[in-house]
What does this fold into?
Amino acid sequence: MGKILAVGAKEMRQILRDRRTLLILLFIPAFFLLLYGYALSFDIRNVRLAVQDRDRSTHSRELVSAFVNSGYFALVGYEDSDAALARLVDQGKVRAILSIPANFERDLRLKRPVTVQVVIDGDNANTASTVTGYARTLIAEFGAVQMAVRTPGLESRIPDPGPRIPTITIEPRIWYNPQLRSALFLVPGLIAYISMSTAVVSTALSVVREKERGTMEQVRMAPVGPVAYILGKTLPYLAISFTSAVLIVFAAMALFDMPMRGSWPLLLFSIGLFLVGAQAQGLLISTIADTQQVAFQIALLSSMLPTMILSGFIFPISSMPTVVQGITYLVPARYFLVALRAIVLKGADITAFWQDLVALAIFATVAMGLASLRLRREWA
It folds into this structure.
């Protein structure tokens, strides 16, 4: 333990001398959270909407108002010509067209089926899918309200439409994120993404720096074994990365209203376990690379891309091909994201995700062991 602390103290002094690197490790991750958190969003707002109203009635205007007042759509204007509407879509001036048929109000009052057409620009499939969901929800809510309301004095003037067919209504209830804010889905992934990247890169450069400066030979002559040297190298960067990760969590809570429904000790333990594995991966890279440039490139490729694509951060793992799903089991951020979202968003206890913590521990142990073996082979 004395040797480990000695190596750690030496590494910490070296870090403190380079204040720019220290500031980068502590505050740049919070800046990235601010940048990516506001730049990445799956919420679609102010969709430009054109209206083709063939009924020109009170009910048709109410339907248009329901679209505009929802906050999802911004009314561009009314247009009757199909060619003019197509031209607006082609020019990118509108992304959706609401077409209300003639006799819309009369059919509603008679409780007859009414079909309202919504034309959506499909050049962006994700946006089109989201806008389709918005339109369906708004029209269904409007229709439900109209079917439940009878105009006073009108029933005596219309024929009896016959027995009512009972309908099944859906009352959705969203747990943990009732507003369906994409920030609550993305921010935990950003915490994992930024923490993983900074921890791996900073540690990967530490041993390679010794090689480039020629001080590795002096370290080999010191009475310090590979395991003590590896652990001593890890401790300072682990402390800095842990502090940075906690700052990111607080920044996410302050800037994006990320809740904290679970246990703080459990959250800090999960962050620490994840960072130990990230540090071990960085040390393993540093034993492979001979220059800081190579180490930096390998660190980015092995941490940023898998965390972004294969961890469930943005793309759901269940929709990936079977072979790719198998590869995701090698990505530690996959397990950390499960634990992080369970603690922060759901307030779950350790029984809900203990398997993921075990997987993180196995990854950290294997990576640290491989780094020690490679370093011992170099020293032999």
